[in-house]
Input
Amino acid sequence: MLLYSRLQGQSTLGSLRRLPMDVKATILLLLGYYRLSNTSGGHLEMLLSLTLVCTCIYLNFTEAYVHSGFRAVEPKNYRNYFKKGRVLRVLWAEPAGHAGQSKTTIVNISKWTEQMAVKIRWFLVVQPWKGHCIAVSVHTYGGRGVTKYGVDANDHAALVAKGQDLILLPGENLNRRPLHLILEDKTVRLDPASRINFSKVCTVEYNVKVSTIGGLPQKIFLYS
Output
């Protein structure tokens, strides 16, 4: 019963309220079955332990995604939203490689015995199309900017909040002029090491959930 008693804590129940209905119903059903059963261990205890672990992983993985303003854009607003200069966030997955960043979640794809790296990635829209847009990614490289080994400074430009000055990191040299971001989400903190990688082009579909960061003034937006 110790596990059940811990699960009754206010913080855990508060977390359960944020879960989708099907996940929450499954967990509560298991808890109810455990309470009514006379067993104090065995397979049921192990099953509940696994359920709790999976719940914690789910919360850590989706909390920022679900509860930080991620929304699907209505089709009628595609043209006005996905325009040149828009800066947004997307839940992004790509082959893991040697990903070792603390903010990256590694997901095992057992069918192909491969791993996928999943994280919240920032993008700058450079060319809208019907149903999708072409975007370049924004990176901090772990706070190292273009001083990170293997990163070509000539492919990058600094992304700076409007009204703030460019801060170059020690040993950093950027030939491209900085691009100034007009923040629409005032709760967002733009990392001083944010760098736009013009050599890394991605396709962002319009039907995925996005979170708006802001945009670049059209008159200064330049993709080169």
Observations:
- Residues 1-13, 62-67 have pLDDT under 50 and may be disordered.
- The longest strand covers residues 114-128.
- The two ends are 63 Å apart (CA to CA).
